[in-house]
Amino acid sequence: MVRVSCGLGERSCRKEIRHLETAKEFVKMASMLIQNFRTFPAIASRTCQLAAVRSLTTSTHLQVQVQSKSKKTLAKPGVKNIVLVEGVRTPFLLSGTTYTDLMPHDLARNALLGLLNRTSLPKGVVDYIVYGTVIQEVKTSNVAREAALGAGFSDKIPAHTVTMACISSNQAITTAVGLIAAGQCDAVVAGGVEFMSDVPIRHSRKMRKTMLTLNKAKSMGQRLALLSKIRLSHFTPELPAVAEFSTNETMGHSADRLAAAFGVSRREQDEYALRSHQLAKKAQDAGLLTDVMSFSVPGKGTVSKDNGIRPSSIEQLEKLKPAFIKPHGTITAANSSFLTDGASAVLIMSEEKALAMGYKPKAYLRDFVYVSQDPKDQLLLGPTYATPKVLEKSGMTMADIDVFEFHEAFAGQILANMKAMDSDWFAQTYMGRKSKVGMPPMEKFNLWGGSLSLGHPFGATGARLVTTVAHRLQKEGGQYGLVAACAAGGQGHAMLIEAYPH
């Protein structure tokens, strides 16, 4: 259910989110969307603002803008204040590069050690550890536990692993918030890890079945009979794919269809991707990515920077061919997030505990929501559905937000969400809302780069987003930040973060 809001807190009746049932209706939606974007002057004017992404690639500056704030706090009577004390991560690296000989728990362990070193945290203070991951290494299925033991945490500290696609570490963080809010814990370490350099590859199902049966055979005759049934096709491996189980469609195909439905051009996507890389490079060179901790990789030396940041030119991006829908698709390798290895970790505490230990928290973790839509035609629209819901929960509007950090799965996905958020027609037709929530201003949006440029280790990105919001609020003098992300399965997440007062 989605609460309907207009202005500052007006509510009307709730309505079930209308889902698209067939491809025919999806095509109808696409044509109606494009027609409405052409027809409505208000939407057309905001679409022009999206076209200004190109100028932002060269005009956005990473300047400290200390603002005078007089906004209310989001603290609630009788509700425990929960704070982000610190957040760190390993450098995010292209899969198949420096981390290739490691295992997932190696990356997670390094993130935990980095957090301990950064905070000088006594290990015994931690009450619980929770990590997110997506493609699990079968030998370390509870990677939170293995990483914690490897980092030297007591074996008396419980640890568990969660999975929720690209919002797995978001789920880890909100799980930590829940444990503290419930009074079960005072200090929780959360984070996430993904290791795409060595994903599990299985035998075919027929081969697995034969091997398991062979293991139970009691005589040589039975074994030979089973072996005689093996065919060459049985040796074809099953490779993991970034695809929806329910629809059998890859996320890239979904992103291509979404971009087409909202009339997002190839040029717009390439310009947005270029912006992401240019802003990430500026942030990296300016030393703003302070959450990155150096990692001494055995036999490979020390890694201290993300290696996927590659500013290019619009001309070079235009030369790339479509990666999914050929030859007319608009999603390419350059305007998509790349397969990434990396891990993140954050220390979350009750405010009382943090202050008692002498810590200066970075931010308050406030309201959050999870949403879920049709995984076929609304797979990547999580931010559009989650953003108005979390704002209403706190009685806020888009104008109150100083810092926006959205997960960039694809440039087309980001721009489609922008157009959906800025469309009264979409809000009324598909969300059961009276009016649009509005588009995030680009001058506040992902100013230190995003997943397109920094990388996207599925299970680790959420913690990076939360930490980045806290750091940007400190640097820019803002009070409120908003994190939003889409995820496989048609799910999404949004969270409000409030700067800790100086």
Entry summary:
With 502 residues, the protein is an alpha+beta fold. It contains 17 helices and 14 strands. The protein has helices spanning 23-39, 41-51, 53-59, 104-119, 143-150, 168-181, 205-216, 220-227, 251-261, 266-285, 314-318, 351-356, 382-394, 411-421, 424-430, 451-454, 461-476, and strands spanning 2-6, 10-15, 82-89, 93-94, 128-132, 159-162, 187-194, 295-297, 301-303, 340-350, 363-372, 403-406, 480-487, 491-499.
The total of helices stands at: 17
- Termini gap: 38 Å
User: How confident is the prediction overall: mean pLDDT?
Assistant: 89
Strand content: 15-25%
Counting helices, strands and paired strands, the structural category is alpha+beta
Main beta-sheet strand count, sense and barrel state: 10 strands, mixed
Categorize the overall geometry: globular
The counted number of beta strands is 14
Rounded to an integer in angstroms, the radius of gyration calculated over CA atoms is 23 Å
Which key phrases capture this entry?
single chain; 502 residues; alpha+beta; two-stranded antiparallel sheet; 14 strands; 37% helix; disordered N terminus
Q: How would you characterize this protein structure?
A:
A hairpin with a 3-residue loop joins strand 8 and strand 9 (301-303). The model is unreliable at 1-27 and 36-69 (pLDDT under 50). 37% of the residues lie in helices and 17% in strands. The chain is globular, with a radius of gyration of 23 Å. Strands 3, 4, 5, 6, 7, 10, 11, 12, 13 and 14 form a 10-stranded mixed sheet that branches. A two-stranded antiparallel sheet has the order 1-2. Strands 8-9 form a two-stranded antiparallel ribbon. The chain contains 17 helices and 14 strands. The protein has 502 residues and is an alpha+beta fold. Helix 9 packs across helix 14 and helix 13 (382-394) packs across helix 14 (411-421). It has helices at residues 23-39, 41-51, 53-59, 104-119, 143-150, 168-181, 205-216, 220-227, 251-261, 266-285, 314-318, 351-356, 382-394, 411-421, 424-430, 451-454, 461-476, and strands at residues 2-6, 10-15, 82-89, 93-94, 128-132, 159-162, 187-194, 295-297, 301-303, 340-350, 363-372, 403-406, 480-487, 491-499.
